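task queued by scheduler; priority normal; single chain, no ligands, no partner chains; default sampling; output format set to C-alpha cells
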Amino acid sequence: MSAPLHIRHSHSRGFSAGFVVKLVLMALVNAFGLFGILSAWAAGSWGILAFLLIALIVADLVYFLPTRRVLPAKYLYPGLIFLLVFQIFVVLYTAATAFTNYGDGHNSTKEAAINQLTRTYEQRVEGGREYSVRVLSNNGELALATTQDEQVLVGTQDQPLSAAGDAQVTDGVIAEVPGYDLLDYGQVTAAYEEVMDLRVPVSEDAADGVLRTDDGRTAYAYTPSLVYDEQTDAMVANDGTVYPNNGEGSFVSPAGEELRPGWRVFVGLQNFAAIFNPEILGGPFVSVTLWTFVFAILSVALTFFLGLLLAILFNDKNLKFRTVYRAIIFLPYAFPAFLSILIWAGLLNADFGYINQVLLGGANIPWLDNPWLARASLLMVNLWLGFPYMFLVTTGALQSIPSELYESAEMDGAGAAQRFRSITLPMLMVAVGPLLIASFAMNFNNFNVIYLLTGGGPQNLESTTGVGATDILISFVYKIAFAGGTNDYGVASALSILIFIMVALVSALTFRRSKAFEEIN
C-alpha cells in the first residue's frame, strides 16, 4: 500500500533540504581548503600545500561520502588535525630547527642573503645628480619614471632607463605613461618594502649604477661596494677584500670579519655541543637545570601537602562553616594567576613593597634581589597559587575513601599517623598520582611565574647569556631565543628538545612507578 501523497511530498522536501545543506557545507569546506592551497602555492610552501591538499581530500571523504562506515571518523578527524598541527608539527619543526644555525643574521636562504648584502653595501655615485621620479606599476611589476632633457625615461628591475613614447608631462610632472599605472602617495606607502627594494639600472653600463628611492619621489644612483663572485663563492669588496663562504652560513674575510646577514645551514649536533660545552652554555645549563628540578619538585610537594593538610582539616563533618572555609581557600585559585603574580611582585618590592614597609616596619629585605630570597619568594608565590588546586583534588579523593577502612583500622588499634600512612596516603596516590605528574610537568615549564615575578633575576652580571638565579630551563630558552643579543633560535630549539626529553622521561618513570604502587595496594 503506497503512502499518502502529502507524506511522500514531505519526505521529498526534507530530503531536498538536507541535500542542499550538505551541498552548501561541502562548497564552503572546499572553498576554504582551496583558498589555503592557493595561498601556499603563492608562497611556495610546498609542504603546507601537500598537507592541506591531503587534509581536504580526507575531509571530503569523511564528511560527504554517503556511507555510515566513516561515522566514527567524523568525530575523530578534527581532533586529529589539531594534534597534527599544534603538537606533532611543532615538535618536528622544533627538532629540525635544532640542527640548524637559525637565528639573528641566519634566517633566510643563501640567495636572499647575497641580494641583501649587495643592496646593503651600496655607495652613492660620486657627483651623481638627484632624480625626480614617479613609481609605476605594470601588472604588479614596479618601475621608475624620470625626466631628462624633456623626455620621459622608464626602467624596471631588469631593464635600464629608456625613452617611453607618448608619455605626458604636465607642469614638469609626469602625468601619464602608456602601459603603466602611476602610483599615488598612498599606494607607494602601501608598497613601501617593494619600493625600497627596487633597483633600476641607469644605463647598460654598470658603472653608472642603479636608481634607488626611499620616498617614491626622489632617487639617487648607487653602485654596489660588494659583488658576489659565483666562481669562487665569495663576496668581493671594492677594495679587493674577499669574503669567502665559510661553510657555516656566512661570508667571512681572512681577518675574521663576518658579513651579515648570513643564511640557514645544517650544523648537525653543533647546537647540542654548545649547550654542554662549559665555555659556552655548559655552566649556566647545569645550574639552571638543577634549579628547574628543585623548583618543580618543591612546588609540587609543597602545594600537595599543604592542600592535603587543609583538606583533612576541613573534611571533618563536625566542623562548623566548613563550606565557607572551603570557599575562602578556593579564592586564590579563582583569581587570575598573572594578576596575582604581579601583585606579589609589588608586595615583595624591597623599597616600596607592603611587606617591607608595613608588615616589617620599614625593613629593607631584598626579596627579589638576593638569589636565595628570590628563589624562596618564587616557591612561596607558587605555593599560594597552587595549593587551592591540590586542596580541591585531595578533598574529592578523601571523600571517595570508604569510612569502613578507617573504622576497621581504629578497631585494630591504629593511630592517626598510622591510618594516614597506611590508608589515606596510598589511596590518595592512586587517585591523584597522574595529577601530580601533570603538575610537575607544568611547573617544570612554569614560565609565567618566573617571568612576571623575578624575570629570571637577579641576573649574573658575569654571564654572557643573561641567565639569572631564578631562571628555569624554559625562561633560559626564552632569553636565548628572544631576549639575547643574537636571538639564537637553533640553540633555543635544541634546549626545547632536551626539555621535552626530560619531562617525558620523568613522566614515564613516575607513571610506571605509580602503577607499581597501585598493583601492590
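post-processing summary
- The first helix runs from residue 5 to 43.
- The first strand starts at residue 122 and ends at 124.
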